[in-house]
Amino acid sequence: MSLGLVPLPPRDLAWVIALGIAQALVLGGWIVCTWQAVDAIAGMQQDIAAVYPWLAGLLAVSLCMGGLRALEFRVCERIGFDAVRRLRMQLYRHMVGMAPRQIQHRSRGSLLLRLTGDLTMYRTLLSRGIARGIASAIVLVIGLAVVAWISGPMAVAAILVFGLGAAASVSQGRLLRRATAVVRRRRSLLTGNIDEQVNTLAVVQTFGRVGGETSRLSHQNDSMTKALNREAAIRGRMRGISAATGWAAVMVALAAGAYEMSEGYLTLAGLAAAATCVRHLASPARNLALVHDYWRRADISRRKIRDFLNSRSRPLDELGHMPVRVRAGMIQFDRVSVKGALSGVSGTIPGRKRVAIVGPSGAGKSTLLGLVARLVEPDQGEVLVDGIVLSSATLHTSTRDIGIVSADLPLMRGTLRRNLTYRHRSASDEELASVLTACGLDGLVGSLPQGLDSWLTEGGRNLSAGERQRVALARAMLRFPRILLLDEPTTNLDRESAAIFHAAIDRYPGTVLIATHDPAEVALTDMTWELCDGRLVRVGPSEDRHDPGPLRAQDMVGTLQ
Ligand SMILES: Nc1ncnc2c1ncn2[C@@H]1O[C@H](COP(=O)(O)OP(=O)(O)OP(=O)(O)O)[C@@H](O)[C@H]1O
Questions:
Q1: What phi-psi label fits residue 318: left (phi over 0), alpha (psi between -120 and 50 degrees) or beta?
Q2: Is the minimum distance from the CB of 367 to ligand 1 under 6 angstroms?
Q3: What is the tens place of the pLDDT at every residue in 442-480?
């Protein structure tokens, strides 16, 4: 059975059905005990002791019903948790396959909502709506059949009232859907704003916008509360309708039963048994009415989750896609276009060459590097590495031999070692030491009290900009990938650190692409590609190229695998 986004395992479905049947059986026991107890009370002059066993039976049935309700709650909640656990991983796998630039187009608030609030909403629908609804429907159908067996008119009266209650509840559905949509929008705005404030607190403070931002957040907060209250009012109304329905059903059934009694078709015991049964059915009837409430509230969440899962994403290891092992490191661009950034770029970068990518701001330099690292997917054309079309390569392997440094790739929360070895978890201390030296990081690591085990906060914000940049360079250069992509790598470096880094690049044994505005970096390269307005306008030898001399083993510890 499908629950809209994930299938309900047959075992769980069997559990829910069994719980529904068990509750219906216990309800049957209640009817029998009530019937007999009332009969015994009616004839009490003869023997009062005859009442007690039935009262004891009612007590036992009540305890069983309590136990079954507790079990039902636990099982239904577990079903929701399990389904959402699977769905969360599905969403996550989809997200990690998306091109980072594609993610940047989405608001952070709505993205976070998808993985948190939307899933909670969907879980509630599964647990309290669908799973509990199935059990309740079974109890309701069997219970009403028993009432009909005792007294047809009482069953018809109860069905009528329950039906009217359900219709009234459904009539609120459209309002609830609209109110829920408003709550979602407001929540997404608020979450996105808070997330942005956390990340840009320095901007807010230094630009003197604390007051303005506070009043913006306060306004969003108030709007959110207003929307929540509006939604709560409608949900309250729906709950009121279902509570009133439960009581009204008993009253109307009693009236029908009383009429039947007056006609001599029903005994007092039968009336009492059927009336208390109808009373018991109020709870499953209410649960069924709430399915609609949960369904409506989760409607948008389900649609948004489905849309997200249907959006473009690259499977991490798709069958039929080939792995890429970079050898010479030759890169070809075949009529590559990226909307708003590049237009029909074609050209070949031979393996083991250093190429400067130059051009004015916004010319498409970072996008070109992003294509090779698969941070961006081409809208048209293909990028090939050593003859393999990247879009038909598994994502996992196509980036293994490609190192990149870019402002779009921040450091992560964790130790310095974790950051440096993020790609190569098994890197040895020697490999680490060689890359630290190449990036001028020996001094920094030596000065930190815990060395490589020092803790970095999100984005490495507890380091200076230059230190961060050097750690990012070392992270990209660990084990010297055959293709190294550098997007303005020395922007934040002092002259000395830049010189150390330039020396490492000068003798780098793989293909290097440097997007740069710095003539000193252009001078390190063999060729220059010049971009302008997303077009490749010039390819030629780099000016002022100097000869770095032969590569000595001690210059570069660690070899290409
Ligand atoms: N994350 C993004 N999402 C959408 N479009 C983007 C994104 N980043 C860049 N662009 C678009 O692509 C165009 C090229 O940007 P790109 O960053 O590649 O230029 P660049 O040459 O590296 O510029 P700079 O020298 O300023 O870094 C920009 O004009 C911009 O409109």
A1: beta
A2: yes
A3: 888 889 888 899 999 888 888 888 888 889 989 999 988
